[in-house]
Amino acid sequence: MTIDVTIYHNPECGTSRNTLAMIRNAGIEPSVIEYLQHPPSREQLIKMIADAGLSVREAIREKGTPYAELGLDNPDLTDEQLLDAMLEDPILINRPFVITPLGTRLARPSEVVLDILPDTHKGPFTKEDGEQVLDTHGKRLV
């Protein structure tokens, strides 16, 4: 199936790997952007966050990042300041963001990506942790 799908991916992240595998299970080979090496532009990041229905603060990754050391938990920080921090150190961008013609999602948990993929899954899908997401007919279980 030809559908334009882009994933902002971190291969070190299990959620990101599961999301990429679910996209491929649907018969789609997405554009994979390893965003730590190739971060989105400010405009792309703003659009992804807005299209996913998130606030800038909801799109920041706290775990395993310099979030606390940078004082990003300060509620007085503006969206512009938070975006500056995310663009300065892309590890602060939560992952994986997935963009399809059916919408944009921050795929956390990874099965959220199913909301914006066509129903073309080829059989079962089990996440790395053993949780089954799709049955033998490719139908969603969770």
* Largest beta sheet: strand ordering: 2-1-3-4
- Major sheet: size, sense and barrel closure? 4 strands, mixed
Provide the gyration radius in Å: 16 Å
- Quickly give the structural class: alpha+beta
The rough form would be described as elongated
Total count of helical runs of at least 4 residues: 3
User: What is the helix content?
Assistant: 10-25%
Low-confidence stretches: none
* Number of domain units: 1
CATH class value: Alpha Beta
Series of H and E elements: EHEHHEEEE
- CATH architecture descriptor name: 3-Layer(aba) Sandwich
Strand segment count: 6
What is the straight-line distance between the termini? 24 Å
- The name of the CATH superfamily reads Glutaredoxin
Which fold name corresponds to the CATH topology?
Glutaredoxin
Strand content: 5-15%
Mean pLDDT across all residues, rounded? Answer: 94
Q: How would you summarize what this structure contains?
A:
The strands form two sheets. The protein has a four-stranded mixed sheet with strand order 2-1-3-4, with helices on both faces. A two-stranded antiparallel sheet has the order 5-6. The chain is built from three helices and six strands, in the order βαβααββββ. It has helices at residues 14-25, 42-51, 79-88, and strands spanning 6-9, 31-34, 97-100, 103-106, 125-126, 132-134.
Characterization of this structure:
- The protein has 142 residues and is α+β, with helices and mostly antiparallel strands.
- It has a single domain (6-134), classed as Glutaredoxin.
- 23% of the residues lie in helices and 15% in strands.
- It is built from three helices and six strands, in the order E-H-E-H-H-E-E-E-E.
- It has a four-stranded mixed β-sheet with strand order 2-1-3-4, sandwiched between helices. The protein has a two-stranded antiparallel sheet with strand order 5-6.
- The radius of gyration is 16 Å and the shape is elongated.
- The two termini are 24 Å apart.
- The mean pLDDT is 94.
